[in-house]
Write a structure and sequence with these properties.
The complex is a heterotrimer of chains A (92), B (466) and C (197). Chain A has helices at residues 6-34, 38-59, 67-88. Chain A is mainly alpha-helical. The N and C termini of chain A lie far apart (54 Å). Chain B is an all-alpha fold and 466 residues long. Chain B has a domain at 1-175: Cytochrome c oxidase-like, subunit I domain (Cytochrome C Oxidase, Chain A, Up-down Bundle), CATH 1.20.210. Chain B has helices spanning 9-35, 46-77, 84-107, 110-116, 134-157, 162-176, 188-223, 227-248, 261-271, 274-289, 298-323, 325-331, 335-364, 372-409, 416-422, 424-446. Helices cover 80% and strands 0% of the residues of chain C. Chain C has one domain (20-195): Cytochrome c oxidase, subunit III, four-helix bundle (Four Helix Bundle (Hemerythrin (Met), subunit A)), CATH 1.20.120.80. Classes of the chains: A mainly alpha (92), B mainly alpha (466), C mainly alpha (197). Bound molecules: protoporphyrin IX containing FE (HEM) (2 copies) and fe (ii) ion. One protoporphyrin IX containing FE is lined by residues 128, 203-204, 251-252, 270, 273-274, 311, 315-316, 319-320, 322-323, 328, 331-333, 337, 340-341, 344-345, 348 of chain B.
């Protein structure tokens, strides 16, 4: 089986993450200008958290490090997620 | 010690220790007056004793910082001090001005002192810690300028290490942050702003830079850990200090007439102020664990590890307890604050001064480390002082809590003096612990006079110029 | 097993943290400050919903979107510069660093314009609770962008001085981790303050 070289693989991966982040940003922006309501808000919530998690674990290099650091970041994301959730589930 | 001019640090250290002893004696008198209101009254009222106690604290800490600077800057810059004679002259000016000021407090009524010293021309007197008459304040500025000139010139011609740059920058900040002391408007809100710029700006901002530079220096020397690692820690600790501490000043603005947003900003940012103190602990412990050799001065090691721990407890933990706006609403100005003030000032700035003295004095006296017997005296002094101070803080915290409940929360609040009476058991504990603190100080000072063979270096001393 | 499979294909193995231990302590301290700020914002919004909703509508959402894209892309450039230095491509690493900084500067310019505009609208810390949070959060973050750019600049200078190579480049990784943090915080700020209303 053919393996791409490790650097090429990393570049492809980073580019994919970038594409996803941009996509999600545009998506949440678009939704927020067009619609309203609870369902939209939970969609945005999910997007925002996913986006944050992506950056943290991929760009920051936490994806494959020791459990302690991933746990710490997980806790932080949970904290932020609750802040966002609290904001989302209030009617606009 | 590598440079002859570092010797000017010695009188500064000795002067600092003498004033420290004086501070404690006046603290004991003030504590006594809490128990017996007529003690030494009317010759020396409480307000005067208290002023002397706190002013001696500030003066001896400044003196120790200056001594530390004259010791460290040449060593780090790898060159002689620009002018040792100026440094020595400055010491005598500072000491004499300090002593005269204290005598003025003690023997001239404060209002008369103000009239005598030109307070009418530029009013600056009266705010806590900044009670000094105008000529003394100007003297402090001149002394600081002389120090800054001397160390900056030394730094300019020598090796520029990050540690040295941070230390000298910290000293510049110390001097600049003193300037609001000259601005004392009639408007009480504005007056309180400029007061906190000095007091908070010092202890929760600029002095933390000095604190981490001094600890960094001692740890570089005693552990042999790579300078780069220590400097990196120093930088992030400083960054965290400034990020939390600058806006954290808002914890003094609640309910004072300052805009309401300070309730949010002050609470949130000051709640983060313990973090740099915690980082100091992690830093010191990691450096000790990864040390490259055994340093023969165990007493200095004990001080260097004790300082961040006590600073974290006093500033970080006790500070956090009273820093959120809803808590300050009840605890403001109670003995809870005094508990925090004592433990933080002692744990951070008194102890770091004693650390650098413990490290440098043997060198200044021509040896690597004192005899084991002397070190035992010193370490005994360490433990007695630390434990006594802890008891003092607990007693004051107890008194603070009683005030909150009896005077500030209940259906039928009791008057101020009524509450004081209810709290006298805590004031007794404080005074007894104060005397044991004093005995610890005596043990500590004794260590300087205990003889015995100085400990020889175990071969693996820190190489010159590391 | 050849080394390539060992280092890359083995996805289950844990890898050491990129960059310096100390920078990570710092990053987590910073994340905590912002975490507290975000939580405080959410609670304040909960108790002043009408005010927040009204004020949020006035924000310049287009600029915020542009800023988000700028930072995300800048972060991508940062990833590329770390990958480049790992592959010992110093010139490429520097080019990506410069791009990352350029995009960061773009953020700064847009943000300054936004602040200037806010000032003309009479938005101040004392104006109301939302403005207090909005200004403190965005200004505090803005200062972090400046700090991040300073760190990137110093790393770029060191890279130009030939300090980094494939086997020693902790500085680049540390700067990268910090820069990603700045980005991460903005992404949440964007969602929380500009989008959700
Ligand atoms: C080494 C560092 C510190 C020292 C030496 C120190 C010292 C003091 C002193 C002496 C006071 C009383 C001032 C007065 O006369 O009214 C004070 C007040 C206060 N400190 Fe600190 N402090 C330090 C760090 C901190 C930290 C880190 C926090 C917060 C986490 C904090 C929170 C407070 C608060 C809220 C007050 C006001 C108390 C009141 O007005 O009742 N301090 N501090
Ligand atoms: C060891 C015995 C000590 C005793 C008995 C003592 C006693 C006192 C007393 C009675 C006060 C006045 C409190 C008031 O205004 O109600 C005071 C204030 C103060 N003392 Fe001490 N003290 C001692 C040691 C120290 C030490 C070692 C330090 C610092 C290194 C220190 C720092 C301060 C400060 C900063 C204040 C002002 C606190 C405030 O206003 O909240 N004291 N002390
Ligand atoms: Fe403060």
């Amino acid at each position: 089986m053919h393996h791409p070289s490790p650097v090429t693989h990393d570049i492809q991966h980073a580019t994919m993450v970038w594409g996803l982040l941009v996509g999600m940003t545009l998506c949440s922006f678009y939704l927020s200008t067009q619609l309203a309501g609870l369902r939209l808000m939970s969609a945005i919530l999910t997007l925002a958290i996913l986006k944050a998690a992506w950056i943290a674990f991929d760009y920051m290099g936490l994806r494959r490090t020791q459990l302690g650091w991933r746990l710490a970041m997980g806790l932080w994301l949970a904290m932020v997620a609750s802040a966002i959730a609290l904001s989302c589930f209030l009617p606009g | 010690m590598n440079f002859a001019s570092q010797r000017v640090a010695k009188p500064y250290f000795i002067g600092a220790l003498a004033l420290f002893a004086g501070q404690i004696i006046f603290g004991l008198i003030a504590g006594m007056q809490y128990l017996d209101g007529s003690f030494l009254f009317p010759a020396f009222p409480f307000s005067v004793i208290r002023t002397v106690h706190t002013n001696l604290l500030i003066v001896w800490l400044l003196m120790a910082f200056m001594g530390a600077a004259y010791y460290i800057v040449p060593e780090e810059a790898q060159t002689e001090l620009h002018s040792p004679r100026l440094a020595l002259l400055t010491f005598w000016v500072f000491l004499i001005a300090g002593v005269l000021t204290i005598l003025g407090y003690l023997f001239v009524p404060y209002s008369q002192l103000a009239a005598m010293t030109g307070n009418a021309i530029l009013p600056t007197m009266g705010r806590g810690y900044l009670e000094q008459p105008l000529p003394t304040k100007i003297g402090i500025v001149l002394v600081a300028l002389s120090l800054l000139f001397n160390v900056t010139m030394t730094l300019a011609k020598g090796r520029k290490t990050s540690l040295n740059i941070v230390l000298v920058a910290g000293l510049w900040g110390l001097a600049l942050l003193f300037l609001p002391a000259f601005y004392f408007p009639v408007d009480t809100v504005k007056a309180s702003y400029s007061w906190w710029w000095v007091v908070h700006g010092w202890v929760e901002g600029d002095w933390e830079l000095i604190l981490s530079a001094l600890l960094g220096f001692i740890l570089v020397r005693m552990t042999g850990v790579d300078r780069e690692i220590i400097e990196k820690w120093m930088y992030i600790i400083i960054a965290m200090t400034l990020i939390s501490g600058i806006i954290g000043i808002g914890h003094h603005y609640y309910y004072t007439g300052a805009p309401e947003y300070w309730i949010w900003l002050g609470s949130i940012f000051s709640a983060m102020e313990p973090v740099p103190f915690l980082m100091l602990v992690v830093f010191a412990v990691r450096m000790l664990i990864s040390r490259r050799h055994e340093y023969p001065n165990h007493a200095a090691l004990l001080w260097a590890i004790g300082t961040p721990v006590m600073a974290f407890l006093g500033a970080g933990f006790w500070g956090f307890m009273i820093t959120l706006a809803p808590v300050q609403y009840y605890t403001h100005g109670t003995n809870f604050t005094a508990a925090h003030g004592h433990l933080a000032f002692f744990g951070a700035y008194a102890m770091v001064s004693l650390s650098i003295i413990s490290y440098a004095m043997p060198h200044l006296r021509g040896r690597m480390a004192n005899s084991l017997r002397a070190q035992r005296w010193e370490m005994t002094g360490f433990w007695i002082m630390v434990i006594s101070m802890f008891v003092i803080a607990l007693a004051l915290t107890g008194a603070g809590i009683v005030t909150v409940f009896l005077q500030r929360m209940g259906e039928h609040p009791i008057s101020f003096m009524g509450v004081q009476y209810q709290e006298r058991v805590f004031f007794w504990i404080r005074e007894v612990a104060g005397f044991t603190f004093f005995s610890g100080l005596v043990a500590y000072l004794t260590s300087f006079f205990v003889g015995g063979d100085p400990v020889a270096a175990h071969g693996a001393t820190v190489p010159r110029g590391r | 097993m050849d080394t390539e499979t060992l280092t890359r294909a083995d996805t289950t193995a844990t890898q050491p943290l990129p960059g310096d231990f100390a920078i990570w302590v710092f990053i987590f301290a910073e994340l905590t400050v912002f975490g507290i700020l975000f939580t405080a914002y959410a609670f304040a919004r909960e108790s002043h919903l009408a005010l927040f909703n009204m004020e949020q509508r006035l924000l310049d959402r287009q600029t915020a979107l542009a800023n988000t894209l700028l930072l995300i892309t800048s972060s991508y450039a940062m990833v590329r510069s770390v990958l480049a230095i790992r592959a010992d491509q110093i010139a490429r690493c520097i080019r990506w660093l410069l791009l990352a900084m350029g995009l960061g500067c773009g953020f700064v310019v847009l943000k300054i314009r936004e602040f200037a505009h806010d000032a003309t609208l009479g938005i101040t810390l004392s104006h109301n609770l939302f403005d207090m949070f909005y200004l403190s959060l965005t200004f505090f973050h803005f200062m972090h962008v400046i700090l991040g750019l300073t760190i990137l600049a110093s790393v770029t200078l060191r890279a130009l001085g030939g300090h980094y190579n494939a086997s020693s480049h902790t500085g680049v990784e540390s700067a990268g981790a910090y820069w990603h943090m700045v980005d991460l915080l903005w992404v949440i700020l964007f969602a929380l303050v500009y989008v959700i209303h």
